[in-house]
Amino acid sequence: MQGLRPLVLGLTLLLPAAPDATSAPSVAAAGTSAAPSPTVPAVRRQLWRFYDAVLVDGVAPQYPRRARRQGAEGRVVIQVLIHVDGTVSDPVVLYSDAPGYGFEEAILAVLPHWRYAAAVENRRPVEVYSTIVIQFALDDPNPPPAD
User: pTM to 2 decimals?
Assistant: First the structure.
């Protein structure tokens, strides 16, 4: 009998939960038919959905003069809080691969002018922290010849 116990436990985990005692069918006496078990109503599931914030209106940062003169390029990673109304606040520079050229300041100067469509969770707008990567690159000084 002990050899069957793990099998019974395994089957118990796979079977749907039994209805509560008030709706459980009565046990029929030997030789009589039992009442059919009531059907359990389908459980309505709420789907969890999340849509990230989307940039709607943004001013491009100006390339810093010092970086342009020295031919410097760089990438800046910042984290911001995007509010329900689409405004941006609490900017934090997480990474800059070319510090000292003014890339960080150029980004921080234009952030107040950016507007987002709010993030949505379960059909409700929510505030989210978002990580933004901005690449500063100079135009190619030697473009390929036109055909």
Answer: 0.60
**pLDDT digits 0-9 by tens, 26-81:** 444 455 455 555 554 444 454 567 888 899 998 899 999 999 999 999 999 999 99
Residue 84 buriedness (CB in 10 A; 0-12 / 13-18 / 19+)? middle
Query: What are the chain's domains?
Result: 50-136 (3.30.2420.10)
Q: Do 81 and 88 form a contact (C-beta atoms < 8 A)?
A: yes
DSSP letter, residue 30: T
The span from the CA of 80 to the CA of 93, in Å, is 9
* 14 DSSP β-pair partners: none
pLDDT tens, position by position, 75-118:
999 999 999 999 999 999 999 998 999 999 999 999 999 999 99
Q: Residue by residue, what is the 3-state secondary structure of 82-95?
A: ECCCCCEEEEEEEE
CB neighbours of residue 82 within 10 Å: 26
Say which residues have a Cβ less than 8 Å from residue 138's Cβ, sequence separation at least 6: 63, 68, 71, 73
- Considering only CA atoms, which of 85, 80, 81 is closest in space to residue 125? 85
What's the burial of 133, exposed, middle or buried (CB within 10 Å: 0-12/13-18/19+)?
exposed
